[in-house]
Amino acid sequence: MSVFRYAAVVLAVGSLAGVIYAVASGAGQSSVTAQRFVNLQEGAKPHEGFRRAHAKGFCVAGEFLSNGKLAPYSTAQVFQPGKTGFVGRMSIAGTNPTAPDLRSPVRSLALNLGQGDADGWRTAMNTPPVMAVGTPEAFYEQLSALAPDPATGQRNPQRIQSFFASHPETQAFLAWQKSYVPTQSLATERYHSINAFYLLGPKGQRQAVRWAAVPAPDTPAQPLTALNPDDPDALQAEFLARVKQAPAVFDLIFTLADPTDNENDPTVPWPESRPTVVAGQLLIRAAQPETKGQCKDINFDPLVLPTGMAATEDPILRARSAAYAESYRRRARESL
């Protein structure tokens, strides 16, 4: 596997993060804010009016059908038996809103479920199950390692290899990347929460969880329409055609941590032996270009949680929230 291929994937996933933090520099400590991070992320020529990460995407809508099996773990209304509508967005990683779908190393599903401060829940899920690094400081080091050499304009493979060699926490992500084979449809990918959260139960109990949207077992594995490798919107076109015939269905599966799992470290996968709960199904019934949909102005901040859920102390989780907010502020100003 090319070191540059690996670098592209970790950079795509790493673009989820950005927050105020301190990093070592030749002159001591320098403060790096979410604003400066997004400056670096967007480059010298930002695509104004678009998200600074996952710039290319389209809107989806549907409902979550809860079976009530998660109700003993959480008082959140969304997990009680019944139906909750959502607006969402499917996207690919990167800052270019016209990038070819099939070349992206990361795919994403973001959802805005329910309404109001008490019941609203936003989640931004991605194909990787873990992050490459676990702190904003390490992520900033990663960005520095991946930056082109000013003298050559090219990435320095030795510098990249040195970074990963000095960060053994990247190994789980690297193992996933080596085994990952992109599917031929956005409807057949698995999308992970990456970070852990707490479910707050009716008896005051707290349970750390991660979740994933997993294609329902009867989902056709083959694309509904042939994918044209020369079509930059190939995956979007296939998905839009698919949901015109039938909903895209995902099981929403929660993995329950045990006391030995560190819910604050997004680089470590939890053992497959951990118990899981299928909370219900996500049914995507409609999809349309972002210019015509309702998702364009939604900030899919993962810290927007309903009563009955809470954030962990994972620093990357807060980093994601800060970066999303800064990206939203910029594109909102540019769209006025």
CATH class: Mainly Beta
Terminal-residue CA separation: 44 Å
Q: DSSP helix count? A: 8
Helix % is 25-40%
**Global geometry:** globular
Kindly name the structural category: alpha+beta
Give me the count of strands: 12
In the predicted model, the low-confidence regions spanning at least 5 consecutive residues are: 14-30
What fold name stands as the CATH topology?
Catalase HpII,  Chain A, domain 1
Reading the helices and strands in chain order gives: HEEHEEEHEHHHEEEHEEEH
CATH architecture: Beta Barrel
Question: What percentage of amino acids are in beta strands?
Answer: 25-35%
Number of domains: 1
What does this structure look like?
This protein has 336 residues and is of the alpha+beta class. The protein has a single domain (3-334), classed as Beta Barrel (Catalase HpII,  Chain A, domain 1). The protein contains 8 helices and 12 strands. The protein has helices at residues 3-14, 34-42, 116-119, 136-146, 157-165, 171-179, 234-245, 315-334, and strands at 21-25, 28-32, 56-66, 82-92, 107-113, 121-126, 191-192, 197-200, 206-215, 248-256, 276-289, 309-311. The longest helix is centred in the last third of the chain and has 20 residues, at 315-334.
